[in-house]
Amino acid sequence: MSYSGFRLIKEALRGHSGWKPAWRNPEPQPGYDFVIVGGGGHGLATAHYLAKVYRKSRIAVLEKGWIGGGNVGRNTTIIRSNYLLAGNEPFYELSLQLWEGLEQDLNYNAMVSQRGVMNLFHSDAQRDAARRRGNGMILHGSDAELLDTDGVRREAPFLNFNNARFPIKGALMHRRGGTVRHDAVAWGYARSADRHGVDIIQNCEVTGFRIENNKVLGVETSRGYISAGKIGVAVAGSSGRVMSQAGMRLPIESHVLQAFVSEGLKPVLPGVITFGAGHFYVSQSDKGGLVFGGDIDGYNTYAQRGNLPVVEDVCEGGMALMPMIGRTRLLRMWGGVMDMSMDGSPIIDRTQIDGLYFNGGWCYGGFKATPASGRVFAHLLATDTPHETATAYRFDRFEKGLMIDEKGVGAQPNLH
Fold first, then answer.
1. Among 99, 190, 205, 240, which one has the highest count of C-beta atoms within 10 angstroms of its own C-beta?
2. pLDDT digit string, tens, across residues 26-72
């Protein structure tokens, strides 16, 4: 069933009686050629590209809960490719290009809105860093524009320009960045994967791996054993827990990241704005709520909830940047579990176990990477070779000293 304006009019005239479920709810088969563990954005995108681009079949996605119940539905919806280092910028530029054609590719309205991302700076040193980053973005085919104070004022006149501690001296503008409706991304990829023959199996938790002679044969699940030729694991914050069932210890820690939504307001924010003197970022949803967040909580956890000190820190950043936010009522808050790697960049690689592949370590960047993550992971599963934009995302970079230290995270993710 294809979606179109004509179909929408037709269903409106017949009382919307002809709509069918977006995807099937099949029983698991005894075996598949490819099993993707994790039914979030990355897992579903992997299945979509594996089936559509690489023409593979007999594919299953195993999700322990329901589609859209994990991190893909627990984020602040921002997409961007404003990275600096050569190991990251080509990958995120590929992701942004895939975002730009996503709705046509999936035949689904994901509400892609390239309203712009504006990174503020508050000192001469930050201006130099922003200029360097912008030049790096342009060299890799992305877009960047350096704004002075007046340029920022034209974009967002409500900001606190006269803050004595954090005067706004300008911003790095990335106009192709923006936001996407997170739930729609999960639903769109699930629907497209299903249309290409992928079995999406919900409420199917992986409880172990069957491994013989260093080769993975299949997975033990809450719904029985499923054999597989190749297994790709893409479970975000649960990476350490799932991969430990295969006897692997990852260079990853799990931390909770809180996010917040205010009551609905009339349009006030032109796009995404980030505070350069603290970790605070904010955008406005299509329903009017201000969507914002900040730092991860500084302790290891698998709980999808945070604590009050981070709430206080995020609110302080918001008040320093735009005092008018203090008059807005908070509607809800939630937490997503982040798989923080030791250098702040992801891992997409084969493991030492034949037939077992891993995709994780996304830190803050998981949602905006969704299309490229699925595309390059599908390439790895289909060809056993890394995609040209993901050659740096290997396990062995840590022992070889080839870290992609984009944010200066260092060996302790809580001290980023």
1. 190
2. 999 999 999 999 999 999 999 999 999 999 999 999 999 999 999 99
pLDDT in tens, 246-305: 999 999 999 999 999 999 999 999 999 999 998 999 999 999 999 999 989 888 999 888
Measuring CA to CA, which residue among 151, 119, 145, 126 is closest to residue 282? Answer: 119
Q: Structure tokens of 53?
A: 């681009």
Domains along the sequence of the chain with CATH: 23-81+83-108+182-251+343-400 (3.50.50.60), 117-176+253-341 (3.30.9.10)
Per the confidence metrics, is the pTM higher than 0.85? yes
